[in-house]
Amino acid sequence: MARHKEYLALEDETPALDISSLIDVTFLLLIYFLVTSAVQIRETDLGMKLPAALPGDAQPTIVPLFIKIDAGGVIYTGVGASQQVLDTDASSRSLPMLAGQLDMYASAARSANSEPLVQLWADSGSTEQRVIDVLNALAAQGIQSVTFTDLVD
Questions:
Q1: How much is the pLDDT for 75?
Q2: What is the spatial distance between Cα 37 and Cα 32, in angstroms, rounded to a whole number?
Q3: Whole-number Å distance between alpha carbons of 145 and 138
Q4: How many CB atoms lie within 10 A of CB 2?
Q5: Which residues of 98-114 are buried (b: 16+ CB within 10 A; e: fewer)?
Q6: How confident is the model at residue 11, as a pLDDT?
Q7: Where are the domains of the chain?
Q8: Would you give per-residue pLDDT tens digits along the chain (153 residues)?
Q9: pTM of the shown model
Q10: Between 96-111 and 128-140, two packed helices, what is the crossing angle to 10 degrees?
Q11: Of 70, 89, 92, which is closest to residue 136 (Cα–Cα)?
């Protein structure tokens, strides 16, 4: 019996890439972007005051401004015969006519040493983005007393 030496043939191995250090770098980059990213203050904190749970005995000294958003995104102010149509383009995020109306109302309220009050009614078919646009316009004017209502005359 002859002795045969068996040689292990070297197989052609495909080159491998060690990615353990790449995983560490990826997590470091993720942490970096999480820490350095900024949250838009305007969208997260509007500084609105919520209405009290129980109605107060004192009546406000100024008549609240009533804002209505219908299903088509059209914005109205006032009630009854004094109702005015303001911004009708629902695709536009800027509300120049409402901003002008709010500026006049807030100036009049502050000149009377009173805080501006707004009642907001949104139709169930209106988009949430349109309501947020109105809230952003209120925050831009510094109006903090906002009440959502379901009473429409």
A1: 92
A2: 8
A3: 9
A4: 3
A5: bbebbeebbeebeeeee
A6: 65
A7: 60-148
A8: 567 666 666 666 777 777 788 889 999 999 999 888 876 655 556 566 666 655 666 665 778 889 999 988 899 998 888 888 888 888 888 888 998 999 999 988 888 888 888 999 998 888 888 998 999 899 888 888 888 888 655
A9: 0.62
A10: 40
A11: 92
Spatial distance between the Cα atoms of 41 and 57, rounded to a whole number of angstroms? 35
What helix, strand, coil percent values describe the chain, rounded to 5? 35, 15, 50
Tell me the two tokens of residue 81: 């015969």
The CATH architecture annotation of domain 60-148 reads 2-Layer Sandwich (3.30)
3 state SS of 14? coil
Polymer length in residues for the chain: 153
148: its two tokens? 């959502």
Tally of CB atoms within 10 A around 131: 17
Of 39, 62, 54, nearest to 143 by C-alpha is 62
Q: Record the tokens describing residue 121, joined without a space.
A: 């009614």
